[in-house]
Amino acid sequence: MQTHQFDAIIVGAGGAGLMAALYASKGGANVAVVSKLYPTRSHTGAALGGIGAALGNLDEDKPLWHAYDTVKGGDYLADQNAAKILAENAVDAVIELEHMGLPFDRTPEGRISQRRFGGHTSNFGEKPVRRACHAADRTGHMILQTLYQQCIKNEVRFFDEFHVVDVIMNQGACVGVVAIQLGTGEFHVFHGKATLFATGGWGRVWQITSNAHTLTGDGAAAVYRRGVPMQDMEFYQFHPTGLYGLGVLLTEGIRGEGGILLNKNGERFMEKYAPKIKDLASRDVVSRSIYQELRLGNGIGGKNYVHLDIRPSTVNRYLAEAGETRRVDDAYIARALAETLDLCRTYVGVDPLTEAMPIQPTAHYAMGGIPTNIDAEVVTDANWTVLPGMYAAGEVACVSVHGANRLGTNSLVDLVVFGRRGGMKIAEYVKTADFIPLPPNPTAEAEAEFKRIRASKGKTKPYTLRKKMQEVMMDKVGVYRTAKELVEAAETMRELRHAYFTDLSVDDNGYQFNTDIIEAWELGCLIDLAEVTAISANLRTESRGGHSREDFPDRNDEKWMVHTLAYRKSDNPYGTETPPVETNTDKKVDMSLAAEDPRFLPKERVY
Ligand SMILES: Cc1cc2nc3c(=O)[nH]c(=O)nc-3n(C[C@H](O)[C@H](O)[C@H](O)COP(=O)(O)OP(=O)(O)OC[C@H]3O[C@@H](n4cnc5c(N)ncnc54)[C@H](O)[C@@H]3O)c2cc1C
């Protein structure tokens, strides 16, 4: 076992981790980034559509309007102090990325180009605004490359292909992590004054997902097993446009460029569900509308999908109908949506310039996660009690800036804004904090668990359990939910966990790049998070944002302007007995913008 000591340990090398690492190192901290993937393979690199900032380069725009859209899009559950920071800091964060060398698309005058996106409006919902800054449809890829270069320049130390499997706590603080070096199977301890989790989401809980295979919620599960609550886990976003059968994401930028959703009769059905903003309604609304169409038997060819049409002839027809002067042609679409065209041609053999694309909603984004304050410090209760030494940023964190439903392009903003704030806070903290010593045997429990998995001789392959989990979660904890199904889903997760601890079977018991064992461990994380999701979803007896209860179809602001917190009640991070999950709803939503401006008060949604 090797031990490494750094002021700051950043777990994860996506946009959030890299931004935090950059700013912690700029502030003078000695920083290590520990990542199971090579940094530029992180999921941030798959983000296509753009990063939202009220630059106002093409249409008049203001950060306050961006904050309003964020709060409204989040169905009023977003903490308003955080939404304000997100919108205000987005502007200089994007300009900073540009100065670091990020090759944004340009307007003819040389400014950063911006496009429309769902839920982005000017003047408090008046009309659509072009706010999404983008580098073709490869925005996330460019962010990742740019930040990685900056980190290298700033002498951040990278431990690539090191898989973090446990959090080390001592004296009530987080003092580092345990990781396995994938190439050797060896255990390493990373001892730090500050540890920031930026491990991304857990879309792999569901069967149809836009998320990469690696998005298994490791960071969230690891801290949850050590007593940190999970906040607002019932809010998981289904993106309306995943490629049928695969879930591969087709960016909202397609509809931003004028793409239209059509049912089997060629009807633009969003006119029915969101007469005002139509295809650019927020994601929860569009996903539900697609499900309604499917229930009405309006899927294409009797199947569970509808069409997304970006053919220039279709787009131009609707642009003309809307009285707009803009027109598109093949060359424009091929340039603005290069990645999309490529994905469709490769995965389903459809050429979007000549055919409509088959789409269905796909599990996409975790609004919930590790609770933090606006400086990325992890908090453990409704009183905002800070857990010393532990930080979180990016998708794994719940600031909460996205509330019940995230707006398109706001995740990339979240990464750079709160990643940066976390990095700055860490730099400040490590200047005065001392190293808290490691507890004796910090790797003991993780090593024992891996020994168990390696030696397991049961009958059930991790694959079988994963498949069952994904099917049940898709079926019962998807876009629409009922108490009965949520209770059943939670029960199934407990059964799966029992099988996981008593009857697992892995084939490979080697040490070098043993993906069999690592995937089995990741499955344990997914099951934990799936269970919390079902339990939190059952607790919230209302419909809000991405959480739609068929048995409680209305939003209930009187009772539910609160966050949910779910705690795993056990000191043993593993063990065959299913630990009870305890929930509370004591944490109120921050309403600081509404206190000054009644437009930020919850109101009925008109689409
Ligand atoms: C296909 C797709 C398109 C998207 N498009 C957009 C968009 O256009 N605009 C937008 O705003 N958002 C978009 N999103 C959402 C956004 O990209 C993600 O929410 C965001 O990139 C997450 O970034 P992150 O830094 O939190 O984590 P990620 O980029 O997911 O990185 C996670 C990091 O954690 C590391 N890690 C995980 N587990 C461990 C472990 N056990 N040990 C060590 N390291 C670990 C990984 O190696 C990786 O480096 C999109 C998402 C997807 C899936």
Any descriptors?
20% strand, binds flavin-adenine dinucleotide, 8-stranded mixed β-sheet, 24 strands, alpha/beta, single chain, 607 residues
Account of the 3D structure:
- By secondary structure, the chain is an alpha/beta fold.
- It is built from 18 helices and 24 strands.
- The strands form seven sheets. Strands 1, 2, 8, 9, 10, 11, 18 and 19 form an eight-stranded mixed β-sheet that branches. Strands 13-16-15-14 form a four-stranded antiparallel β-sheet, with helices on both faces.
- The protein is globular and about 70 Å long.
- The site of flavin-adenine dinucleotide (FAD) has 44 residues, from helix 1, strand 2, helix 4, strand 9 and helix 5.
Give the helix proportion (percent range): 25-40%
Query: What is the count of helical runs?
Result: 18
Oligomer: single chain
Global mean pLDDT: 96
CA radius of gyration = 23 Å
Biggest sheet statistics:
8 strands, mixed
Q: Low-confidence runs (pLDDT<50, min 5 residues)? A: none
> How would you classify the helix and strand content by structural class?
alpha/beta
Strand content: 15-25%
Number of DSSP strands?
24
Distance between the termini: 57 Å
Which small molecules are bound?
flavin-adenine dinucleotide
Shape: globular
